[in-house]
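pipeline: protein-struct stage 2 | run 1193 | Reverse transcriptase zinc-binding domain-containing protein
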Amino acid sequence: MGQDRYARKCFDALCDLDNTGNSMMKYNWASQVKACLTSLGLEKLWDADISTLYELRPEFHARTSMQQREIDIEKVRNSERLKYYENCIPCEAGPAEYLKLNLPFHKSKMLSQARLNGNQFYCEKFLHQLDDSQECTLCNAYDRDSLEHFFIRCKIFAGTRSRTIMYYIHEHLNPHSPFQMLLNWETAEECNIFYTFIMEALRLRRTLIEES
Ligand SMILES: [Zn+2]
């Protein structure tokens, strides 16, 4: 860009202001870009020529992606509402494995509710609200009405559980592992089995609620 172009003059003025040390970051986007590069460990890009910028562009994207992912994970860890999701975060950056399986939408929708919707399921025009501040009123296990209780311990769902996900409970959980480890599905078979359990359990739950 020519030195006499208006945009160039604005940029140079912002850089000069930044160099004085008196620049207010929120009003100076040049300072913001410089700070961004510094936080990524890529200060050298600030003064780089255009060929170097092109050459290092993939590294910039990779580091930015990694940085944003770490910020997101930290937010989840500090979140009251989404803290349980900490144990579902994929090891690698990118979508969870089950989202790569090209499942029918109605299945991925139910599975994503189990992973992301806290204690709620919206299924067949009925809202299932688990209340983990209270004991489950459907069985006599004297256990909190939580998502963990729903998947692992509620006696009402013992039949469908034994036909569907019991194998995975034994396979993936030990007394110390968080139950969310169950929700990191990697194959279509796992997804189908968990989808079957969720649907059968929710239908039974709705029947019991409506008849009580
Ligand atoms: Zn129960």
